[in-house]
Structure formats: C-alpha cells, structure tokens
C-alpha cells in the first residue's frame, strides 16, 4: 500500500488545459474517487499517476518515492511504479483463458508456477469466478469480464490500484452489484484505490473521499457527505445530487437586524447559523446571490398559511417518491416528495422552502457564502 501525492500537476493538449495546477493528497489505503464531467481532466490525472502520460509540470509521489518530477527530470516507467490499472474496456486477452489472463502479470515476472496457481485460485474464488478459469473471454458476460480484469490487477498485489470507469460498460443492475463488490474488495485488501467516474451516484456510494474536477481545475475535495451537504460552489452543488439542486437569483439583505434572501416571488428569513456565517465574512449588504435548495428540502402541501403558491407542471413517479416539477411565478422548481400525497398536474399547491437547508452563493464568483 502507498499514499499518492500530486503536486502542481499540469498537462496541456494544444491550447487546452487538461489539468491545471492540480494538488491532491490521497491517503494510504483510501478509496479515492476522481469525479467530473467528460473532459474535466480526471483520466489524464490517472494516466499521469500510472506513468502512461508525462505531464508538462508538477510532481507525483507514491509513498515517499518521487515517480514523476519535471523539475528533477525524473519519470519512472509504468512497470517501475508498482501500480495496477483496470480500464473501461477491461483490456483482457481474447485468446487466453481466464486463468492465463489472471496469471499473466505473474508469469512475465517469472513467479514460480505453484505460487501462481495458488494466487490465481485465491483471487478468482474471492471474486466469484473460480469456476470460469478454463473459459475464454468470449464465453463470459460483461460482469464476469470486469471481474477477470480486477483479478488480474489484484493478483499482482500492487501498491496502488488505478481504475478508469471500470463499471461503465455494465447494465444498471450489474453496476449496483459490482459497486458493492468493489467496496467489499477494498475493505478486504485495504490497498489504495484511485477510481475515475463521471457518475456522481457511483462516486457517492463507493468513495471514502471525492475530488470533483471541472475543466482541469479542482473544485472541492471531501467525503460524500461533505460535498453533498456543504458544496464549495455552484458547480459542485449542481453536479452532486439527483435530481440536481434548485437555483434562484436573489438579493441578500439585512433589514431591522434580520437577514433574509429576497427571491422576487418570496422573501425568506435566514436562520441564525446562516446569519453567523455571513457576519464572520464581513460581507457588505445588500448583495446579489444565487440561492440553492435541494429537491428533498422542498415540501409540497395542499394547504397552509404563509406558503409560496405554485402550480404543478409534471409529476414523475419513482418508486416510493414523486419528483414534482413546479412553476413558481415563472420560475421552475423541483421537489421530491412522498408518493402517498395525492397530486395532479395543473393543480395549485403550497410550497415550503426549508430555510435551514438553504445554500447561498456569491453570484459573480459562484463560491459559497456559508463556509470560511
């Protein structure tokens, strides 16, 4: 096992900055996820750690060993880094049996045959493919091929596993099962994993910590709960969560000692914890802001005093819940509410926005106002 340190990493393709001054500290034994949309730099970062791409600037350390340094003119080849990579397309050899695919990394290192047989058997059985060792890849399902690729990586016992969207070729049901398998595998082997995905549900369900990238820049690093409950900016708030967060332009005010955000269709008093955060920053008011609230913190009710009035546009039934699309004086709003509530498209309803769950972002920078 080894920690991974990335310092001031830069990689440019033409005029495009794939990775721009990236700094990350990945802990020994951590399941660390690189998350972001296509083209954000997550795979480029992974390939730099693997030694498959030489960055334009920066340093990469595995444990205490420098493996990449432009300043020191040092660049270790992939085979010198003791890392194992699992690709999106599995990259297993079609002409070899499952056994030979798994054993191949050990064979090229000249490991004794008895040790190879023992290790292949142990790893294949732990991944539920022990009965498939005589088959060729063409005889396997997508989920089985994915496990063969994992087994081939695990059998090497590397310091770090690098995984580039290894579940993206699986169907939805298999992906859920494979995520659980990966999590159990990590708990058992305790090896550092750097995992690339564009799927925020996948990242939230398996990662110990998540680094969210956007156009080569690091937006936020934190646990799944931290990035969900305390997003650093509008990009993180909009990217994490399904359905995504609702946003409204507003004016942050203080009138007669009371802080509120004026959304145009409603003025919402802010709770003490939000007041305290704003006061610590010494913000001059009034201030143009973007207010955000997650759909699960928007309550739709039939009747009640002091509620915002809205009209239901569309209702989606998703298991035990409704995803309700509302029109609030020309603004669109999404709510996740219990499917036991009887609602109909076109119906006028009351809407309660929980001020305790409100997020406020500075309109120009997009940064949160609720963190120091």
Main beta sheet strand tally, sense and closure: 6 strands, mixed
Q: Strands of the biggest beta sheet: in what spatial order?
A: 7-8-9-3-10-11
**Which stretches are poorly predicted, pLDDT < 50 over at least 5 residues?**
none
Report, as a whole number of angstroms, the end-to-end distance. Answer: 34 Å
Q: How large, in whole angstroms, is the Cα Rg?
A: 25 Å
CATH topology of the largest domain: Rossmann fold
The coarse silhouette is globular
Q: What is the H level of CATH, i.e. the homologous superfamily of the largest domain?
A: P-loop containing nucleotide triphosphate hydrolases
- The count of domains is 2
How would you summarize the topology of this molecule?
Layout: E1 4-13, E2 16-26, E3 31-35, H1 42-50, E4 57-62, E5 65-69, E6 74-75, E7 83-86, H2 98-107, H3 113-126, H4 142-154, E8 160-164, H5 172-189, E9 192-197, H6 200-206, E10 209-214, E11 217-222, H7 224-229, H8 234-239, E12 246-255, E13 258-262, E14 267-269, H9 272-281, E15 287-293, E16 298-301, E17 308-318, E18 321-328, E19 331-338, E20 348-353, E21 359-362
Parallel strand pairs: 3-9, 3-10, 7-8, 8-9
Antiparallel strand pairs: 1-2, 1-4, 4-5, 5-6, 10-11, 12-13, 12-15, 13-14, 15-21, 16-20, 17-18, 17-20, 18-19
Helix pairs in contact: 2-3, 2-4
